[in-house]
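Recap from last week: sequence in, structure out.
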Amino acid sequence: MMARAGIWFMQSLARLPLSWLRALGWLLGQVLYLLVWPRRRVALRNLQLCYPEASAAQRRTWARQTFVYFCQAWLDRSWLWSAPQAVVAQRVQLQGALHELDGTTPTILFAPHFYGMDAGGLALPLHTARAFTSIFSTHPNPAIDAWFMAGRQRFGEVRMLNRADGVKPIIANLRQGGLLYLLPDMDFGAKESIFVPYFGQQAATVPSLSRFARLGRAKVLGMYTRMTPTGYVAEITPAWDNFPTEDVVADTTRMNRELQAAIATMPGQYYWVHKRFKTRPEGQSSVY
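Predicted structure tokens:
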């Protein structure tokens, strides 16, 4: 009942002006930054590992920003998933190499965990009729999980897959000329990962981008979604040259380099509260 009441409350927020929602998100972010100290500590540690050259004050600024953007993005789900399509289309822009979406070439969009990722996922079916697939973990609360799935599938032909569904439907969709919206930048443990450089650290990284591109005979585009005062702007890059190769380690290393470059353009909007370096190479102690 609490979950359903929360969903109803979120849906009711869709009627508010965006500026009001963003102001409320700013306030909640400030409160969470002060109160949720375990995640604040994780964010600060990640930033220390990734940006050791930055001052402590700068890293605290980025950490505080990430809590604000987290709360604002959460509240934005109210209108992203409930407001009329015209409202979403006005607030969510798709820019960059849009020609890469034309035709039927199997295509993977590398869409890492910036806080605009849900807006970016909705931008695609608003601008292309091509079917696309995305992979998300199931929420333990059935009501919230259903809300997530309905919101992410509200426009176009979108198929949401549980990570447990395996790779066959993903590759099948690609080979039929579909799009794959892929978020492979989290730490899913040693069993699913290889260790490659990331911000100067050896980071356990899922090599799915290289493998899916090779199996699906797909080109890869970067898609990085930025939160703005008026909504979101999703930027699509040209297709990566010479990708994939036969070297999954080199490909995954490149993926992390591309991600680092994208984060550098908006460090406060990345998902620093995740324990990205929790899986350590053998013999190395925890950094958290």
